[in-house]
Amino acid sequence: MLSHALTTFLPSATDDGGDSGFHGPSLDEFFPEALLFPNTPFELNRIMLIRLLVVVVLVLVFWLGTRRLKVVPGRFQTGLEFLLGFVRNNIIIETLGEKDGKRFMPVLMSMFFLILGMNLTGIVIFLNISGNSVIGLPLVLAVISWVLFIYAGFRKHPAQFIRNSLFPPGINPFLYIIVTPIEFISTFILRPVTLTVRLLMNMVAGHMLLVLCFSATQFFLFTAGGAWGLFSIGTFAFGLAFTLFELLVAALQAYVFTLLTAVYIQLALADEH
User: Fold this and answer.
1) If you write DSSP's letter for every residue of 233-267 in order, what string do you get?
2) Which of 19, 51, 63, 189 has its CA 20 to 30 A from that of 233?
3) Do 171 and 104 form a contact (C-beta atoms < 8 A)?
């Protein structure tokens, strides 16, 4: 709405006829042009390069943090151990227990830090867009979560998993006509879809808000000029506030995605199956 209002009510051209009006965020930003290897299966655009950068940084951070562990850790090791301990104790072990938590810890731990790293690039200067703002990566992560759920269920209850998932015990058999299709859709279809959409849309919405605020700040300050420049104070303040909010959302979405994956695995391992 702010983008529409600015475009409608503010001057959109310079005195010489050039276009200098306010340009709000566009979905085209999520489909950037190829930067490397265009028109090949290995084509890389800006978002793909950001994803590769995040992977390299994560590998480097964990390598540096664990290659020389000390009994009395320094600040870097202490911070890394705190993050690892938080994910281990508050998400994995608390949800799955000690035994099953250790089995699934590598993939859940990797999932958390990958999502967190990808999300944080949305507020990093010169990157300014999340690696999870295009559906490919959130979809892959959701499929991994779904596969873990199916694997855990078949591994623990090979004969009863599907039957008890689609035909919950203790229900009148006549109700299975209604219950079974609902259970199939909610358990085997909607779970990966909701995981994908939740992560994707939070990152898309956050990027659009930040671009809108800082683009408006630039417009008011350098293009509109005059008294309009005072509005840049407000839009810049909103931009800073949304940046802090995006930092919270980045961590929260990594937590929620990993926690839900752990919960789904725990449901598959439950004795009811």
Assistant:
1) HHHHHHHHHHHHHHHHHHHHHHHHHHHHHHHHHHH
2) 19
3) no
